[in-house]
Structure formats: structure tokens, C-alpha cells
Design goal:
about 300 residues; alpha/beta; two-stranded antiparallel sheet; 11 helices; about 45% helix; globular
């Protein structure tokens, strides 16, 4: 992306007094990166509970999602898991700072990796790799870390509502790979894959009225992008699932890389889309407390009328 011609991405555009609170917060966030991970996790956990208390709409959305995913859980177990997920969300705030302001070589020292051979095998074909993952609270950290294990890597971003935060996110995520691509820019994703790049790809959100099918996911029926299979077909890229896991007590992170999806795409778009959902679902059930349950994943339904969050 051309950052030089887009004034909204130039930090000098945000020097007015109304932006000073955001700059102050970013400055504090940068200072916190000097603290040990164990302390950041404790601080983030407290922040997460604070968010849990003061944002009832998101707390309720997460609870609805969890109840759907775990229908046999008691109310107490659902509430306990919900609080853990919000603690994880709070920790992610400080992790974002670490991911943005720490050099890749230093971050790499915090990472343990499982299944790297699957990534190496896929990259060796030089047809690009779609790094299939979910929206975990470790998103920024995982996106940065996975890029340190490949020679050619494109990071992605979804435009933020705050223009200053968006400019900062673009600035720091741009350092994570060769190119930073907006999630809606499918052409750029395809172009990068055809050049042999690995590209982060998280299709597990509600994207409204894009090219969708409706398939099972986490106990419900979710609007599911068909793009994963279509991009893989157009480029010949392997689809390699991975997910980052935060280790307790500040012991770092673990990247779990799974084998590339075989016989994918199969030619049946609904079957392929359901398989993508099932792959991400398995990751979520492996470490549910680190998933972003507060997103209204099931907002778009096939009848365009049903609203489970109403």
C-alpha cells in the first residue's frame, strides 16, 4: 500500500490537541513494554475484568456465543470462561504494544514452535501459503511471530475506526513483513501469493454481505467467506492452519502449525467453507479462553432477520 500519498496514514496529521489523549496512551503503552511479560499479564488480566464490568453489551455477546458453543456447560462454567476470555482480551492490549515496539529478533526469543516442518514443506513449493487462523486475542503477537519463520511474508490489517490508531497500526504492522495488505484487498493478497509469499488469513468474522455461504461453526450457523477456497484455487497456494497460544506466567508463546489442508479446494464451495470453519473451530476448542468471543460472529443469518444478540 502507498503510505506516502495517503495523508490519513501520516502521523503528522494527528498533532491537534484532540489527539493528545491517544498519544499519551500510546506513550504509556510503549513504556509498559519495558516490564516483564509476567507483570504485563497481571496488569492485562485486571484490565480485562474492568472491561468485562463496564462493557455489558460485549460481555453479553460473548456469553451468548459461549452458551451456543458449550450447550452442556452450567451458567457458572460459562461465566467463568467468559471472565477468562476477557482477562485474555485485557492482556492482548499490552501484548499489542510488545508486538509493535519490540524487534523481531527479540520477540523470536519468546516463541516456541510446533509443526514448523508443515510450514517449511508448503513454502518450498513457492506457490504461496495462506496462513489460516482465527481471531484469537494473541492476534498481533501471533501475526508478528509467524512472519519470523518465513523468508517472504505479507501481513494484513482491517481498517480501524480511529484514524490515529489506524495510522499507528499500519506503521507498526508494516514492519512485520514485506507488504501490509488491507483485508478487503483480495487482489493484493492474490498477487502476493503468486509471488510465493505467506499471508496471514483470518476468515472467522462476520463480514456482512460479502460472498458467503452458511455453515456450522461453534455450535451455530455462521456466515462463512468463500474466499479461502477461491483464493487457493486461483493461486495454487497451500492452506496451512496455525494458531498462537499464550503461555502462563510470562513464559512466552507457542505457535502451533498444523499440516496443510489436503485435497483443498475440493471443488465444492460449501464443503470447503465448512471445512475451513471446522479447522478454526478445532483451534478454538483447544484454547477457548484465548479466543475473541465478544465479536458478534453470528450477526448475519441466512434469513437476514434472525438476531441471536437481540
Amino acid at each position: 500500500m502507498n503510505k506516502t500519498t495517503d495523508k490519513s496514514l501520516q502521523l503528522s496529521s494527528y498533532l491537534a490537541p484532540k489527539y493528545w489523549p491517544t498519544w499519551f496512551a500510546i506513550g504509556l503503552l510503549r513504556l509498559t513494554t519495558l516490564l516483564p511479560l509476567s507483570i504485563l499479564q497481571s496488569m492485562g488480566s485486571a484490565l480485562g475484568i474492568f472491561i468485562y464490568r463496564i462493557v455489558p453489551a460485549r460481555r453479553r455477546a460473548a456469553r451468548i456465543n459461549l452458551k451456543q458453543a458449550y450447550p452442556d456447560f452450567s451458567d457458572k462454567k460459562i461465566d467463568d470462561l467468559n471472565k477468562k476470555a476477557f482477562r485474555s482480551l485485557g492482556i492482548s492490549v499490552f501484548e499489542t504494544g510488545v508486538s509493535w515496539f519490540t524487534k523481531s529478533d527479540e520477540l523470536r526469543k519468546l516463541c516456541h514452535i510446533e509443526g514448523k516442518e508443515h510450514l517449511d514443506k508448503a513454502m518450498a513449493k513457492n506457490k504461496g501459503v495462506l496462513l489460516l487462523t482465527g481471531h484469537f486475542t494473541t492476534l498481533d503477537m501471533g501475526g508478528h511471530l509467524i512472519g519470523t519463520y518465513v523468508d517472504k511474508y505479507n501481513a494484513v490489517f482491517k481498517r480501524a475506526h480511529s484514524p490515529l490508531f489506524n495510522a499507528l497500526m499500519v506503521r507498526y504492522r508494516s514492519k512485520m513483513g514485506d507488504e501490509l495488505i488491507e483485508t478487503k484487498n483480495v487482489r493484493a493478497i492474490i498477487r502476493g501469493l503468486k509471488k510465493g509469499h505467506a499471508t496471514w488469513f483470518g476468515p472467522d468474522q462476520d463480514f456482512g454481505d460479502q460472498d458467503l455461504v452458511f455453515t456450522p461453526f461453534l455450535g451455530g450457523i455462521a456466515s462463512t467467506l468463500t474466499a479461502t477456497a477461491k483464493i487457493a484455487k486461483m493461486t495454487g497456494a497451500a492452506v496451512v492452519p496455525f494458531y498462537p497460544v499464550r503461555l502462563e506466567k510470562g513464559k512466552g508463546y507457542k505457535l502451533i502449525i498444523l499440516p496443510a489442508l489436503d485435497n483443498f479446494p475440493s471443488g465444492d464451495i460449501e464443503t470447503d467453507s465448512a471445512r475451513v470453519n471446522k479447522t478454526i473451530e478445532d483451534m478454538v476448542y483447544d484454547c477457548p479462553e484465548q479466543y475473541l468471543w465478544s465479536h458478534k460472529r453470528f450477526k448475519t443469518q441466512a434469513d437476514r432477520k434472525t438476531n441471536i444478540y437481540a
